[in-house]
Amino acid sequence: MLESKDFNASLYVGNLHQDCNEATLFEKFSTVGSILSIRVCRDINTGSSLGYAYVNYTKHEEANKALDVLNYDQLNGQPIRIMWAQKDLKSKLPMAANLVVKNLPRTIDDKILRDMFSMYGNILSVKIVTYQNGDSKGYGFVQFEDENSANEAITEVDGTLVHGRKIIVSKFIPYKDRKKFQEISFSNNIFVKNLTPSFSSNDLEKLCLGFGSITSARVATNEDNRSKGYGFVSFECAENANRAVAELNRMYLNGRRLFATVAKTGFINI
């Protein structure tokens, strides 16, 4: 596990059983180092556990060892999830390094998913989305520490077979980003994602010119003018848009499998 000076010696421990308390956690985590403090987060009204806690070690090296050794261990019959703790963590995570992994076999759990991606860089969190009974929904999320690691993971893992299934790996696009786009005459427009970071609006236009006359093509970018990995193309007629979708969807380009669909939103203000 790569060390990070930003995270010190504090760990976030999630997916805790309701009966898990500070004493239970101390017994578990003290086996790998000296504990400074443990706090199970509870509802202020009922006192019931919220299912997560913070464990603070005296040394970063001990916390790092706990993360490596204890992650996904069973505690009160549930596999615990451990990651580095940090204030306002969600606001500091690089969104461009957050991946969604689809078409996973139902036997893949958090630990296996982490193992699948760990060789490509430092992973901050992994989560398989489940039903209320704990069964996998067949997809999950992998949050890397940096975008380069995420890009490498997409290139290497997307389209590979896992237990007979071809898995799909792409950048996660937040709902708030999708809502930025104003609705326009959607039948003439297509949405294309899983583009390489260097793929420009000009490249997207050239890619689609063969399907008919284009009125505009735009790759979405962030504040640093870096590609977000997706874009929109507006054709003069719906027939050409549909033909482009039929040809581009699941086509491999620059080592990545593209995903294309008729868009219900345009690309104003991206």
From TrEMBL:
Signal peptide: none annotated. The keyword Glycosyltransferase does not apply. SUPFAM superfamilies: RNA-binding domain, RBD. SMART domains: RRM, RRM_1. Gene3D superfamilies: 3.30.70.330. One of its GO terms (molecular function) is RNA binding. Keywords: Repeat, RNA-binding. Residues 9-87, 97-174, 188-265 form the RRM domain. PANTHER family: RNA BINDING PROTEIN. This is Polyadenylate-binding protein. It comes from Trichonephila inaurata madagascariensis. The gene is pAbp.
